[in-house]
Amino acid sequence: MMCADMVEVRWRDRSGKERGAIAILEDISVSGACLQMELPIPLGVEIQWDAPQQQFQGHVRYCVYREIGYFVGVEFDPSFKWSKKAFQPKHFLDPQTLVKEPRP
Question: Name one Pfam family in it (predicted).
Answer without folding.
Answer: PilZ
